[in-house]
Amino acid sequence: MAHEHEHGPDCTCGCHDHEHAHEHGHHHEHEEVVELSWAHVELEAHTHEQAATVSMNIHPKEGSPVAFADLVNTMQEIARASEQSGGIVGHIKAFAKRGDAFARASVTAADLPPTCDGDQSLALNASAEIQLAAIVLLVDQADLLAICKQALAR
């Protein structure tokens, strides 16, 4: 939803300076794969302006089903640890799909309940598609990566 407003010479909304946004772009990219007892996780991190972003593609191992509720707990742990590190949670979200069933959750602060839709009782197996993403302001990318890995290691 676009917000109509005047663009003064010092406007920093970013909606009109597409090229300028790409000059800074996403930088400090980092990719790694983490093997956990229950899953294989592909992590990708970016820093943009004052925000660090970590995207996680989670692949549960055969015989290690994951409850979607456990992913929501992981998201809340990322929010708690980020805020304890002096960060401000922008958005932590999860999406999971198994066959025709899906679940989504969103966390915007450690002290607020997550917003959820879909089948929250979804059990995720090796054929499931699971994505988590954390966008946190004022936390270093390396710190956010460490927070995410620690929360996933549960």
Mind sketching the topology for me?
Blueprint: H1 18-24, E1 27-35, E2 39-48, E3 51-60, E4 66-67, H2 68-84, E5 88-98, E6 101-107, E7 115-118, E8 123-124, E9 129-137, H3 141-153
Antiparallel strand pairs: 1-2, 2-3, 3-9, 4-8, 5-6, 5-9, 6-7
What's the alpha carbon Rg, rounded to whole Å? Answer: 17 Å
Main beta-sheet annotation = 7 strands, antiparallel
Query: What share of the residues lie within helices?
Result: 10-25%
Physical arrangement of strands within the biggest beta sheet: 1-2-3-9-5-6-7
Counted by DSSP, the helix tally is 3
> What is the overall pLDDT average?
87
Number of domains: 1
Tags for this model:
globular, 154 residues, 3 helices, 7-stranded antiparallel beta sheet, Hypothetical Protein Yjia, Chain: A,domain 2
Overview of this protein structure:
By secondary structure, the chain is α+β, with helices and mostly antiparallel strands. Helices cover 24% and strands 42% of the residues. The chain has one domain (27-153): Hypothetical Protein Yjia, Chain: A,domain 2 (2-Layer Sandwich), CATH 3.30.1220. The chain contains three helices and nine strands, in the order αββββαβββββα. The strands form two sheets. Strands 1-2-3-9-5-6-7 form a seven-stranded antiparallel sheet, with helices on one face. Strands 4-8 form a two-stranded antiparallel sheet. The longest helix has 17 residues, at 68-84.
Give a brief description.
With 154 residues, the protein is α+β, with helices and mostly antiparallel strands. 24% of the residues lie in helices and 42% in strands.
